Amino acid sequence: MGFFKKLLGSGNNGGKMGDLLQQLTTDLSLDTNQANEIKVLFKSFKEQRAGIKSAGGERSQILAARQAMTEKMINLLSPQQQDIFKQNAGKYDSFLQQS
């Protein structure tokens, strides 16, 4: 899906991850539990990614971790939210690539 191409970055409110979470919350009308669960998934992915990089891991390992996170996130969403998410995937990619 290419959704989390540039997930990590610096900035305010958790960087691009925080900005993305805010956008997802608005677009998908996430409830508090969903938003918190997604925040935990983002944090876990960030830690996994750092661990893979520091161990000299390959890009394929990062992509696999990202795919696993995305699947877990989609499973948290209702069918209607999943449809909205899929329709807006390109928007989220662009959102993350902004400086």
From TrEMBL:
This is Uncharacterized protein. It comes from the Bacteria. The lineage of its organism: Bacteria, Pseudomonadati, Bacteroidota, Chitinophagia, Chitinophagales.
